Amino acid sequence: MVKKLLHTRYRVTDLEKTVAFYKDVIGLQEIRRHTSGRGSQLVFLKAPQSDEEIELCKFDESGPVIVGPDLTHLAFEVDDLEKFAREAAAKGHPLSDGPHRTEGGSLIAFIDAPEGYEIELIQRGSDL
Fold first, then answer.
1. Are residues 12 and 44 both part of a single domain?
2. Alpha-carbon distances of 110 from 15, 39, 56, rounded to whole Å
3. Cα–Cα 20 to 30 A to 40, which of 15, 32, 69, 127?
4. pTM of the entire structure?
5. Residue 69 has what pLDDT?
6. By residue range, what is the domain housing residue 112?
């Protein structure tokens, strides 16, 4: 039986560009990096108040990275969605959708990571 989620892996083509996005735009912390036994370049990141990590992997031998629309996304809680949106846009990464208010008062929006993965941003309202 499993105990808890440890990490989620996303394979990317441009590891350094993607790591910079998650650190500089999203605000994640780089935890560690190394090369696996088979030669994958791995970088682990996490949100400041989370235990779960995101593993970014560059492994060219697996072929091109193709991210289909609505394939997957990561969701992060933010304190102030409007402020996040202004700061991300100033860094060249505007929101791709939203913000939208939910029935319970939360605000949600989306931003695209460099490889095409979608990031959901949630400012909690009374419904969460």
1. yes
2. 21, 33, 20
3. 69
4. 0.89
5. 82
6. 71-128
**Domain assignment of residue 65, yes or no:** no
Residues 56 and 80 in one domain: no
CATH number of the CATH domain containing 11: 3.10.180.10
DSSP string, 18-79: HHHIIIIII--EEEEEEE-TT--EEEEEE-TT-S-EEEEEE-GGG------TTS-EEEEE-S
Question: Does one domain contain both 4 and 54?
Answer: yes
In a domain, 66, yes or no: no
Tokens 């970088």 correspond to what residue? 43
The two tokens of residue 80 are 């102030």
Our count of domains for the chain comes to 2
128 residues of the chain, pLDDT tens digit each: 989 999 999 999 999 999 999 999 999 999 999 999 999 999 999 999 999 999 999 999 998 888 888 888 999 999 999 999 999 999 999 999 999 998 888 999 999 999 889 999 999 986 54
